[in-house]
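Priority: medium. Attachment 1 of 2:
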């Protein structure tokens, strides 16, 4: 680094020399050339592997030399009286520039500090110096932030605003009067720091909490904010700011010399900070602007430019991001520990979060206790001696059981001791049956597992004890649904399962009784811990994970029955979501096949809970009331089949007969002949999915439609539409009654899409007399809320026009991309490939056409139009749209009422679908 700085200084000496008396404003080309040459020098050094601190420090020096030059030129060209007045001025760098750290496109913040008084000549001299520095900087295109203040004005500003105080705490003299600057520094500490330490630290901690929450509260986000996210540059800086205010130490080296931090902590923090600065530098260079979010579209180029040259783009990104996460995690964990150890947290902050761990012992007055080599006091666990783990390595696991059972936290010194002695967790310990018992006991404490496992992971024990999980640490997930790394997602799953036990509000509370019914909850917790371990290897991760579960079960001495249940849950952990959201739950074959794969009631309950918490932990936007109702429908139908009750078909027949009797007992306001006609005209499956009130609603709808045929001769094709907002289920039900005709589904889908409505699912029933009763479950596509009244009113008008007049061109109506909300963004230059599959096994009389592609406006309408054009009738559609990806299943029959089995025709249909989707353009 020293050599680079010397080259920059030598370049400034040669390039910044101008003729005596010549103003800087006439030498702009000279300054532009200097900046261009030195900026290119830094780029070459950066791409050659220079560290982040080296490049950022060199850029700060490059600008230091320019500003010092402009200051001296301003003094030299000023009239004698004004030149003399400059002795009461100083040019001071503040903020990041004051730290001497500037990324390529970071702003330059400095201050004109003065003690000029209010005389006209002094103010004129000050104005001249300000202009002499600022105008050339603006003219050469630099982004500058500046202020002009006296020492007293600095104190007022610092005490009025925490961020301003922080910026001034990092002030550095560039040019001018050094005595004035020293006076500023001394006064700042005396009037703005001394006696105000607690207030400043409280404000910084509050700002940090808000900032971390704003950027995901995790150091493992798929798109991390390098500057302000958890484990970002700001966390490191925040620690030093608070340490200076409390201890007057400005660097990690000073903190180490004072015995406040350990050598390994300093090294890890410095390495992490340097690396993240290097990443941010590359982001600035690549985008040519100040960028802080390392988005998915940016990751491939940044990885390549930083030297990750693997042939596989996904491997390149995975290796790069894993290093980013490792360093971010180090900053996050170490700074969080140091905040507590350095007594930066208020007293209440030490105990914050204890409520997350449910205490298993009666509440009593806090009292210091010593047990098993540990002392329990003040809400924390302390080691009695530094040899506590050397004396008995099994305590490495037991200490976490103590924490769980007592609702305590590890003291930061104890957490550091575990990390430093983690090598004691050797092969013998990993096979020790006593340690297995402790670990399984921890997993068996419903509602209190996540905080303990997270603490174990942060201390380095969890990945060492369960090496299958350890390989997930900081592992990138390439699936676009996920917003966390694999290890963080796994811990979030376990936290969500805890929330089921502790939750008092839906949707978590809906699953509490199911969770309570499990006699061996540790199996489900272990399944969640292992469900994604297959992602660290090649192949289908669920199958690979199931094999890993067998090895883990053997190592933990689990019996054969438990191990098999663990294997089945992991192998099928995605099955229940797929079946409930993409299969016809009214088809007995679907339920029968799923029941055969599940096997028993316990496994079914675990899969239902696993499905719910896995979705909750994947993204906060994936779950809704509609999916919840689908999951429960599949659960109850499967439970009925596998619980030893009547055979499914016979039970369904009895249900239909009971429904008919109940309808008759209701004495509906229709003739008996009309009711009987409706019941005889509907297919058998209709009675499997409708209760009495729904059937009566359908009869009323059909009655109104037939009445219109008699009374409204000019519009016999106009549909009858019924809307029902179902807030508890999270969607609106739209029922349409009309005559069956070709392309009906397409026109309904097109009308809904044109008005900005997203179709979650659809039920299609056709009476034997040709009257259709179609039901669509919809939400507003932009907000996910229930449709607005204006949308409902316009839909009926549009659909009536489509069904009764000339063809409506839905392509033009639904072409507004603002109708859909697409949070997912693909990698730059990459797109989710369109997949079309034909399934002739999962339904008894229909072919399932599955389409996966990037979501686009009008996609459902486009696909249904293709299916109609090629002569396929849609009887049911299972629609799912997640984070910019559409996963749709259409149940179809040919014109002859048969399955689509001809391979040549399947290829033709697939080609037409792909062409139509391609014509929509990129999402």
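Attachment 2 of 2:
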């Amino acid at each position: 680094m020293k050599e680079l700085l010397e080259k920059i200084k030598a370049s400034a000496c040669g390039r910044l020399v101008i003729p005596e008396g010549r103003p800087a404003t006439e030498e702009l080309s000279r300054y532009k050339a200097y900046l261009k040459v030195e900026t290119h020098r830094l780029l070459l050094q950066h791409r050659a592997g220079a560290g982040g601190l080296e490049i950022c420090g060199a850029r700060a020096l490059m600008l230091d030399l320019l500003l010092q030059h402009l200051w001296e030129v301003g003094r030299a060209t000023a009239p004698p009286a004004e030149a003399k007045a400059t002795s009461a001025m100083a040019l001071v760098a503040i903020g990041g520039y004051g730290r001497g750290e500037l990324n390529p496109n970071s702003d330059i913040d400095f201050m004109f500090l003065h003690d000029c008084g209010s005389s006209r000549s002094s103010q004129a001299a000050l104005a001249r110096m300000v202009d002499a520095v600022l105008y050339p900087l603006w003219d050469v295109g630099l982004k500058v932030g500046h202020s002009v203040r006296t020492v007293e004005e600095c104190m007022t500003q610092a005490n009025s605003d925490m961020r301003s105080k922080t910026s001034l705490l990092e002030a550095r003299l560039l040019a001018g009067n050094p005595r004035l600057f020293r006076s500023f520094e001394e006064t700042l500490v005396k009037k703005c720091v001394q006696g105000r330490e607690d207030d400043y630290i409280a404000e910084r901690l509050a700002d940090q909490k808000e900032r971390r929450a704003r950027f995901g509260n995790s150091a493992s986000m798929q798109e991390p904010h390098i500057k302000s996210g958890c484990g970002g540059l700001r966390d490191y800086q925040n620690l030093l700011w608070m340490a200076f205010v409390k201890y007057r130490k400005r660097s990690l080296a000073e903190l180490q010399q004072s015995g406040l931090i350990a050598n390994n902590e300093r090294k890890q923090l410095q390495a992490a900070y340097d690396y993240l600065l290097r990443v941010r530098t590359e982001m600035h260079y690549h985008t040519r602007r100040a960028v802080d979010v390392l988005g998915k579209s940016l990751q491939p180029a940044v990885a390549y430019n930083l030297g990750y040259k693997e042939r596989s783009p996904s491997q390149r990104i995975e290796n790069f991001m894993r290093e980013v996460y490792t360093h971010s995690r180090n900053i996050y964990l170490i700074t969080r520990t140091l905040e507590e150890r350095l007594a930066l947290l208020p007293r209440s902050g030490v105990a914050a979060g204890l409520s997350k761990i449910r205490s298993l012992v009666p509440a009593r007055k806090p009292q210091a206790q010593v047990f098993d080599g540990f002392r329990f006091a003040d809400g924390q666990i302390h080691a009695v001696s530094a040899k506590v783990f050397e004396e008995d390595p099994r305590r490495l696991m037991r200490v976490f059981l103590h924490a769980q059972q007592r609702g305590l936290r590890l003291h930061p010194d104890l957490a550091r001791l575990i990390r430093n002695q983690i090598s004691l967790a050797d092969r013998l310990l990993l096979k020790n049956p006593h340690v297995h018992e402790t670990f399984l006991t921890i997993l068996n404490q419903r509602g209190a597992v996540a905080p303990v496992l997270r603490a174990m992971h942060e201390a380095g024990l969890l990945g060492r004890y369960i090496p299958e999980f350890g390989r997930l640490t900081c592992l990138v997930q390439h699936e676009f649904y996920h917003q966390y790394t694999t290890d963080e997602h796994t811990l979030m799953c376990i936290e969500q399962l805890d929330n089921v036990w502790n939750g008092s509000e839906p949707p978590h509370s809906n699953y509490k009784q199911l969770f309570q019914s499990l006699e061996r909850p540790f199996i489900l917790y272990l399944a969640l811990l292992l469900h994604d371990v297959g992602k660290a290897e090649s192949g289908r991760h669920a199958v690979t994970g199931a094999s890993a579960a067998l090895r883990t079960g053997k190592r933990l001495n689990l019996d054969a029955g438990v191990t098999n249940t663990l294997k089945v849950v992991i192998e099928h952990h995605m099955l229940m979501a797929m079946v409930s959201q993409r299969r016809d739950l009214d088809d007995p074959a679907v339920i029968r096949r799923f029941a055969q794969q599940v096997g028993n009631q316990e496994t079914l309950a675990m899969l239902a809970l696993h499905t719910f918490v896995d979705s909750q932990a994947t993204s906060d936007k994936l779950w809704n009331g509609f999916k919840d109702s689908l999951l429960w429908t599949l659960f109850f139908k499967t439970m009925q089949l596998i619980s030893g009750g009547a055979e499914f078909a016979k039970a369904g027949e009895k249900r239909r007969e009971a429904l008919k009797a109940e309808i008759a007992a209701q004495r509906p306001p229709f003739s008996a002949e009309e009711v009987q006609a409706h019941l005889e005209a509907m297919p058998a499956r209709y009675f499997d999915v409708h209760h009495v009130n729904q059937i009566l609603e359908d009869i009323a709808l059909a009655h109104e439609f037939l009445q219109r045929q008699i009374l409204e001769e000019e519009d016999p094709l106009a549909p009858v539409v019924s809307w029902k907002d179902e807030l508890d289920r999270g969607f609106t039900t739209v029922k349409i009654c009309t005559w069956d005709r070709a392309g009906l589904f397409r026109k309904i889908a097109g009308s809904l899409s044109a008005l900005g409505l997203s179709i979650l699912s659809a039920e299609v029933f056709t009476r034997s007399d040709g009257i259709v009763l179609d039901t669509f479950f919809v939400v507003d596509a932009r907000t996910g809320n229930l449709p607005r009244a204006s949308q409902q009113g316009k839909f009926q008008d549009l659909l009536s026009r489509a069904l009764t007049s000339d063809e409506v061109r839905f392509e033009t109506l639904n072409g507004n991309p603002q109708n859909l909300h697409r949070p997912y963004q693909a990698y730059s230059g990459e797109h989710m490939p369109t997949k079309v599959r034909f399934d002739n096994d999962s339904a008894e009389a229909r072919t399932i056409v599955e389409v996966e592609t990037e979501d686009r406006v009008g996609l459902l309408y486009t696909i249904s139009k293709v299916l109609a054009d090629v002569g396929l009738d849609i009887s049911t559609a299972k629609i799912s749209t997640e984070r910019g990806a559409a996963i749709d299943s259409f149940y179809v029959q040919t014109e002859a009422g048969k399955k689509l089995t001809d391979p040549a025709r399947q290829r033709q249909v697939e080609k037409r679908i792909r062409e139509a989707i391609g014509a929509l353009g990129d999402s």
